[in-house]
Design goal:
single chain, alpha+beta, two-stranded parallel ribbon, elongated
Length: 135
């Protein structure tokens, strides 16, 4: 039809980049990196922090908005995109449930109670993949 329609990301961007908001807003993009749309976000990721739409509209990123991409790999991302992003690598073993439970048990002051809870996890839930790794 040739008519401009605002996409999902642009609509979210317009809604939450509001200087009137007094709280931080996180936009989470979870999924594979598509070479076309990630390149279109380079102006958001660089010092300009402006989303430029295909119709010419430019929407600045406000200080209260944070954006995070949760991706499996960066295969389709260009070096320009990678250089603009702060990248944190998390190994698969750190994503399992066992490290989370272990961190919680380590915070318990009563070590006897922590040991009982650990044994209950092992008995009723089993071991996680990270527990089975021989490293």
């Amino acid at each position: 039809s040739g008519e401009w329609m605002t996409g999902i990301f642009a609509a979210i961007w317009q809604k939450y980049n509001n200087r009137g908001n007094t709280y931080n807003m996180w936009i989470i993009a979870d999924g594979p990196v598509d070479a076309i749309w990630i390149e279109n976000l380079n102006t958001v990721l660089d010092d300009n922090k402006i989303l430029t739409l295909a119709n010419g509209d430019r929407i600045p990123m406000t200080d209260n908005v944070k954006i995070m991409f949760e991706v499996e790999d960066l295969r389709n991302a260009s070096p320009a995109t990678v250089s603009r992003a702060g990248i944190i690598y998390v190994s698969a073993s750190d994503l399992d449930w066992s490290p989370v439970v272990q961190a919680w048990l380590n915070k318990l002051e009563d070590t006897f109670q922590a040991d009982i809870i650990r044994k209950l996890f092992e008995r009723f839930i089993g071991t996680s993949e990270s527990d089975n790794d021989t490293g």
